[in-house]
Prior knowledge:
This protein is an all-alpha fold.
Amino acid sequence: MSKTRTSVSPDLDTPTDLDTADVAKVSAALNALLADAFALYLKTKNFHWHISGRHFRDYHLLLDEQSDQIFATTDVLAERVRKIGGSTIRSIGNIAKLQTIKDNDEKFVPPREMLRELMNDNKKVAAAMRKAHKICDDAEDVASASILENFIDETERRTWFLFEATRQEGGNEA
């Protein structure tokens, strides 16, 4: 059984067979992903709300679908941290400290630039998930690693759809 972690209240110290140091490393990696998930969710919704132009309906629906998918990862990530006895994010301020996805507060962003920015953000998230997966592997936390494998696939799918939506007619990328 694990030792009591000093960063977690004894009332929240969920029993686990994972090493205390490994719980801290996995929790930190998953919390960073969680913060980025919230940041990417809000950016995707922002662009969904402010998309314009001739492909409005297609892009509006695409971004709505993607934001729902991103939001669905948040509870899974947070609950995984709690299942192993870690402590997860508690506030918008905590998210702001941990997020690596940059906010976009511009008054207007052309649709293609929105999609490209989201594509690059999703690529960044997939890379961060791979790094977190390695941390989970090293800690022998197969459950967290398994969750990340599915999330990596979903993130790569979002990246692919955003890439294809921004290609120029005739198949050439601009």
